[in-house]
Amino acid sequence: MCAYYYTCNYKNMQDINTYLKNMFELNYPYTSDQLHINNCYGYFPDLSKFKSVTQVYISNCFIHTSHRQSLPKWVKGLSITATNIHELPELPESISRLIISRTSLERLPDRLPSRLMYFVLEKNPKLEQLPPLPCELSLFTCVDTSVRELPPLPEFLYRLYCWNNELVDLPRIPPNLRYLRCANNPFTLSPWINALHKEVPQQQDIMQDDMFSYGQLYVDIKEIQTIYRFREMYYAVRFREQFRRWLWIPRERTIKRNLHPERLVRFLEITEIDDLEKALDMFFQV
Question: What are the chain's domains?
Answer without folding.
Answer: 10-238 (3.80.10.10), 248-285 (no CATH)
